[in-house]
Amino acid sequence: MSKTLKTGSSKRIINSAAYLFSRKGYSGVGVREIAAKARINISMVSYYYGGKAGLLKAIVTEYFSYVDDIALRVAEMKLPPRESLKEFICEMVNLIKDKEDLCKVAIIEMPIELPEITAVKVELLKNNMRLMSQSLSAGFNINDPKKHIIIGPAFLSLIFSGFMFGNLIKKISKDKRDDDFCKRYCETISALFLDGMSGFVKSNKKEKKK
Asked: Which fold has domain 58-209?
């Protein structure tokens, strides 16, 4: 077992780092601040993660591990293509709701002065795209790898969109991030991605008639 999994301290460190990185950016946060937030001795950050860069690697790795698990679970359900995509979107929305800071940091942070972070993301993303292709794209007969590169980021960006603007939206809308909001969010994103704006409008009209 990795030493990062042995104690609650390591989890507090990574959660504190995700919280601070998501609000101030990777470059705007120091190890001392992370240690203070996690309520641990600063030396523990080096012990568990080797420093700030190691923390970011751990966050990125944990995020892709969650997404890979989702892709595998959805594939095992053997659902029709459209239902499979909807299930994946709903699983992703629940993941982001539960681990919003970690997900934001894993997607957004790409420090240009740390090429090793880019290398880690590239390898993890390759594996993630392979799994998503097997569980989602195959059902829609999307066999062109060049299209995967375009569709994949667009797909994830659409899922993340409402959460990336979350703090601003909270000031505009009184909606709470409860189960009802997530259900509506999943349905809306699914309709937009699968059928475009015209399909979403038709679906919305049907709902109003019920």
From this structure: Tetracycline Repressor; domain 2 (1.10.357)
The pTM for the full model equals 0.82
Retrieve residue 117's tokens.
Answer: 């972070």
User: Rounded distance, CA 88 to CA 92, Å?
Assistant: 6
Q: In 109-140, which positions are buried (b, 16+ CB within 10 angstroms) versus exposed (e)?
A: beeeebeebeebbeebeeebbebbbebbbeee
Percent of the chain surpassing pLDDT 70: 80
Distance CA 199, CA 202 (A): 5
Token readout for 103 is 């997900």
CB 166 within 8 A of CB 100: yes
- Quick check: helix, strand or coil at residue 162? helix
Domain ranges of the chain: 58-209
List, for residues 185-195, the tens digit of each pLDDT value.
Answer: 899 898 888 88
- Assign 4 a pLDDT band (cuts: 50, 70, 90): very low
